[in-house]
Every structure is written in structure tokens, then in C-alpha cells.
């Protein structure tokens, strides 16, 4: 199982390698404060059109059916990103007080502080958080996949693409320490950094489902190789498809891609209370994190591995089957919530897996009687029938013997039988013979003389 990573749109790798991997210690007295300054550029949004219909993802992902079963209650999703505007109306009461990591050019490399609740300059983290746990707006014009889930924001003050590997590793460890159930990593790097790899491994070992984006470069990287943390072991990696369900050309591909979500132009939450349009694997990854929150809220005993298996096993295949562009297929929240385990071995271990109903083979009905029992029963039945026939036929045998084995009644029976009386001759019959009685002779008719 690999986690789906949401790729970042800005990858300042030359700057990362120059500043992040090789620290430059500044002269004394020039250590910056931990993000005391305001945003150099603040992303904003606009109101949705008054005639906007239901949010397209609701139908594409079958969310109304899924919400009948779960909403994400009791599940915490950590969003390691640019921050989250906890004051957005669609995120009311959903955002916890998180952490902020700021890179400092000194030996300690970074500092951890608590960010202001509304701090998100680029707006990327707010958009991701809204895709995961945004509240259902009036008329369902906007909604997150798991509106009941909680968001634990981890803000990288200078941008994820400019953070050092040790800073990112510390942010991942912070999510685990905060008790996150799911970790959403909506960024992708073409470099395998050992500190980040080790931190992701610690999160996986701690039972956290790590979901990461495949990236938006269309595999147009220097060596065309994998992206990280998407390709790390134990990570659930997410690619992107368009509204037609076909893979986006910008979505990276590889054997480390496990699932796909919709990455076409989508309305997302913007800092300050508005909305804007975004696209890419970052938001496809957020959909998978939201689907995972739905399943985990319904089946809280699932392990991270079992949760990932359920999501991939219930996905809608793209192009006829698994492939390196979309993995097992497009995430299906309702399918994941109702997925039946395909195990047919009937073992207690399979039946005991939380959230799984084993599909067992049709049992072979054993015969009611064995061959020996059936033979014994047949002989017993035949003997009983013979005895019954003998008892019923005994009187007939005795009568036949008295008749001398001839048909008809015996002489004794004939002697005892009464003789039938001869019926008297009818008067009319006598008259017809020419000897009518005087009383019965018809009266001659009067003749006219």
C-alpha cells in the first residue's frame, strides 16, 4: 500500500537544495522571528454564483448515499500544507489548533509555534482542508467529502516547497504526536530525502494512514522517476482524472500510484470566506483522505492497512483495470463503506476483520442419510410393507380356500343369501298380452250414433 500525495504547484528545488539541504548559518543577531510578519501576498476568493447548482463532486463521488452511512465524525485528518483558514464559514468548528513550522538559518534549522487560526497566505491548505471536511452549504452548493471530520492544520510558514527535509520530517512527527488518524500530504518532490522517508515510516508504523499526491508534472522530471513522499512504502498515492473519468495528462504515473480522484477545475474554499477554482492531484488526494475519514468513522477498528485495502478494493476501475495512471481506479466512498470482503476461506480471522463481511461459498448440503443408513431404511420399509400386506390379505386367503380357490361366494354364503322376490306382473303388461282384468280394462268411448 502506498499513500497518495497531492503535488504542489511550485517546486523550488534549486532553492531547496541550496538552502534546505545545506544550511547557511547567518551572522549573529540576524536570526528571524518565527513568522511574525504578515503575508507578502494573500490569496482571496469570490462568492459562488447565486444560480450555482449542487457541487459536482457530490454526484461524481456518490456522496449523498455515503453520508447516509457516515460523515467522518470522530476522525482527525492532519493537513501538512500552507495553513488552514479556520475562520472560513464552511470550516466552522472543524479546524483544531494546529502547529506552525518556520525554517531558521541556524543549527536548530526550524522552530515550532502555534499559528493564528486564520493564517494561510497562498490558500492551498484551506482548499485542501475544505475538500476533506468542508460543511454542506445551503443547497449543497459546496461540501467536503467528510463534513464531520476534524482538521489538524500543520502550517509550513515559508511554503512546503522551500522547507528543509528535517522541517517536513518534524511536521510529520507532529501530526502523529497530535493523534491524527489520517495524514494528507498534498505535495510531491522528485528527491528522496532520508529524514522525510524516516518520518513517513514512523507515521505508518504508528498506524496513521498517510495519503499523498502523485504530482502534476506528467512525469516531466529530470529522470522521469518517482515522486516523494508518494513512492514511499506504506503510502496511499493518488493520481487525478478529469470530469470524464479519464486520467489527466498532468498527473504523474508509475507503479506507486494506488488510486485516483477528480482533479479537473473545482470550486474550492479560499481564505477569507470565499471560493476559487483549483485543479490537480492535490485535491484528488484530499478526496481520498475524506473518503478514508468516512470509512474510519463507520469502522473505527480498521487498521491503516485495512483501510487502504478497502479503498482500493472498492475503487471504480479506469480503462478496464489497474494501471499506472490511476492505480486501482477512482475512489468510491459509498463503495468503500459497503464493500464486502472477497475472502472465501471462511476462517475466523477473515470473519473477525472489522468492517468486513466475508462472502462465503455456497455450502454443499450433506445428504440426510449415508448409503448404509439408506439401505437399512429401505429393507426395514420393505419388511413392514410385507407384514402389513400379510395382515390385510389373511381374510381374503381364508375365503378363497373355503371356495376351493374359485371365484364367487362360498356355498355357505350362497345358502345364507336371501332369494329375491319375483315382482308381480304389471296390469298393463297383462292387458297387452290380451287378458286384461275387468277393473283395468279401459272404458269404451261414447260413440255418436
TrEMBL record:
Segments passing through the bilayer: 376-397
PROSITE patterns: SUBTILASE (PS51892), SUBTILASE_ASP (PS00136), SUBTILASE_HIS (PS00137)
Peptidase S8/S53 domain: residues covered: 72-329
Domain of life: Bacteria
Keywords: Hydrolase, Membrane, Protease, Serine protease, Transmembrane, Transmembrane helix
One Pfam entry name: Peptidase_S8
Catalytic residues as annotated in Swiss-Prot or TrEMBL: 81 (charge relay system), 124 (charge relay system), 282 (charge relay system)
Region entry Disordered, spans: 400-449
UniProt entry tagged with the keyword Transmembrane: yes
Family annotation (SUPFAM superfamilies): Subtilisin-like
Family: Belongs to the peptidase S8 family.
Protein name: S8 family serine peptidase
